[in-house]
């Protein structure tokens, strides 16, 4: 994917909604994302179910999971689900992947030890890619074993063959710690961290490049993304109150200065200045996640129409990307 421009996506907060998605598609955004837990503590959806809704209720934008907790899923089953959704959407699906760990009971419920979640994710990613190539697959791994399996994505009505992209959807690795960075460098098609500062993002870029070089991997076409909680309002004080109310409690009522490092808020001019720091650190595709309990579409609209045009690419291209 070319990185000669800066792209905006949006998180469908709080839940995918047909009218919200239709309005968002009319904005100058490139993607819409939503994740989900298996057993969340609130009445919120699961990642593949939400992805299916977004597939049905959008026409233009790229749609993705942010994130799918891959170690909780049987990889052959989820490979088929994602392949079918990519085919039915005309090749618009992307798969943001995380290892989870916030809710231990989810792992206990599906019989997956938390200590194995990283290794299971790595093996599952390899299985997804193998099955998406379309040839018969034999696999003998630590966690999964099968012989002569061939995945056939659903054929959309009127199509002469499956519309899934060759090789399947891109796998975008999420996280904040070095194991996730190493996974992105070795196995991922992109990097989608969250709740990190611009300086931390710059360090992650360097770590990924170092790990990729050690593995002999060329990162041309790698996607440098950022899942960014933020609030943009004409009233900057209201935007800052949004973030404090949405994220503050989760971080022990940290001061506003701490929240501003990881979740920008304010007027379009103020937020653009903060996002420019991320661009300078290497971000090329922001997923704007409205950190607010109301009028989330208003935040996405201001971000797309008044923040995005203010951002500028650095004069020096990001190493390992296409120009």
TrEMBL record:
Keyword Chloroplast listed? The answer is: no
| Domain spans labelled Luciferase-like | 18-285
Which keywords describe this protein according to UniProt?
Answer: Oxidoreductase
Q: Which SUPFAM superfamilies match?
A: Bacterial luciferase-like
Keyword hit for Oxidoreductase: yes
Which Enzyme Commission numbers does its entry carry? Answer: 1.1.98.2
A Pfam family found in this protein is: Bac_luciferase
Sections of the chain in a coiled coil: none
Q: Into which EC class is this enzyme placed?
A: oxidoreductase
Q: Name one GO molecular function term.
A: glucose-6-phosphate dehydrogenase (coenzyme F420) activity
Identify the Gene3D superfamilies for this entry: Luciferase-like domain
Q: What is this protein called?
A: F420-dependent glucose-6-phosphate dehydrogenase
- What species was this sequence derived from? Nocardia aurantia
